[in-house]
TrEMBL record, chain A:
Keywords: Nucleus, Transcription, Transcription regulation. Its main location: nucleus. It is found in: Nucleus. This is Transcription factor IBH1. Signal peptide: none annotated. It comes from the Eukaryota. It comes from Camelina sativa (False flax). The keyword Nucleus applies. InterPro entries: bHLH_AtIBH1-like, HLH_DNA-bd_sf, IBH1-like.
From TrEMBL, chain B:
InterPro entries: bHLH_dom, HLH_DNA-bd_sf, IND-like. It comes from Camelina sativa (False flax). This is Transcription factor bHLH66. Signal peptide: none annotated. It is found in: Nucleus. Residues 108-127, 225-243 have a biased composition (Polar residues). Residues 146-195 form the BHLH domain. The lineage of its organism: Eukaryota, Viridiplantae, Streptophyta, Embryophyta, Tracheophyta. Gene3D superfamilies: Helix-loop-helix DNA-binding domain (4.10.280.10).
Amino acid sequence: MASADKTINTDVPEKDVFAIHFLQSLSNLRIQNLFNSPDTTNYRVRKIKKAAYVSMARAAGGTSRLWSRALLRRAAKGNNKIVRFPRRKRKVTWKISSKRRRSDQRAPVVEDAAERLRNLVPGGGGMETSKLMEETAHYIKCLSMQVKVMQCLVDGLSPK
Amino acid sequence: MMNSSLLTPSSSSSSHIQTPATTTFDHEDFLDQIFSSAPWPSVVDDAHPPLPSDSFHGHDVDSRNQQIMMMPLNDGSSVHALYNGFSASGSLPNFHIPQGSGGGLMNQERQTQTPSQPQARASTATGGTVAAPPQSRTKVRARRGQATDPHSIAERLRRERIAERMKALQELVPNGNKIDKASMLDEIIDYVKFLQLQVKVLSMSRLGGAASVSSQISEAGGSHGNATSAMASGSQTAGSSNDNITMTEHQVAKLMEEDMGSAMQYLQGKGLCLMPISLATAISTATCHTTRNPLIPGAADVGGPSSPNLSNMTIQSTNTTMGHGNGKLKGNGNGIIEGSSSISVKEAVSVSKP
């Protein structure tokens, strides 16, 4: 099968790229000066979590990956214009529209697992199963990188 | 119709054979398939007569069905050209067989088109003067005994692609040595959930809840009589711990008046929860003695590195309690908590402390 794409590209940048993006987002948060009242703990937590995801999406390749694009779009809803989305050359969802009816017949074991994955991975709703798994691989790599960065920060900056 | 074309003289068709590179694309195709398949030499070495009749159906189900796709059924001219050429070289019996199966070609066209393949094989086996330049093929080789209609091929391609990606995912996920596809997919899903949970936990401890979480620890430690120096967080003094508790209780009482959900959320953010007094009393008396000692060494590393663990316990709803901490919360909000006992029973975690 010479046409099989043996080179599925799931490389992610190094840790420092993620670290830089995350630290930048944290300092942006601090500038907003939310952290005075401890009553808003939950609000702080949510802001930090959102900042973590957005910085991860940016570090992982911005809008060149489907999941990061969906994440950024979701985060930018209602906000100021943070992200610019270049027009894609072709529509991604053509495969779904033509074969959605048949998807239930195709290995239902795989398909309902794919449904659960679609709920977890951002932007998964519009992807075919094979594309979804590619995105999941990249997403997992980026998530683990982000977790490592955050853990290092926590460990390094925690008071003794 | 086909018979007549078979018997036509082959002045033009012989040119087809002698210059295969310049012939039609279809011609090259099936020649390429023939020469690229491995067991061909065995067929060539066989004697002539056994080839045509015996091998027809025997090779039908052979693995070289890919030639079926290449064979241009409608355009039989190239095929016939070959036959004619070989007839020129003297292998006369071949003529009859292609004729016979030429009709068969038409009949079995809707099937897997296998009969066409033995014809070509028979003819080229004898000849072998045609050189077909090997090309890279992008067509799929059909498996043994399977249909080759485009739907199933696309289906197979898709499955292979999915399997390929799952193999790549298998290396990423820890404990990804499952052979079963279903359990492998479950592992993947759980791992994604776990990573997302880790991000959430880390964002709670990192800058976010660290101050409030450590305050809970310090107050609990202080009220329990442990050395407050053991509470290494350092961001809150022990003196303000009591104020924190009171403030928390007032805040919770205020929130409960408007909406229970927001009150619970607020508590959750602080790492606390509600529980009926009777239950809390029972737990505190039961565990106060047993858990005190292990807590002292555990409290020493309450600082940064273990704050994620704290938040973990908040989320995982462990059941360790600190009696005094609960007592304080219960005491002031007595009436309110009793009233809400039905709700709190459901979420009867406890104060999250190590």
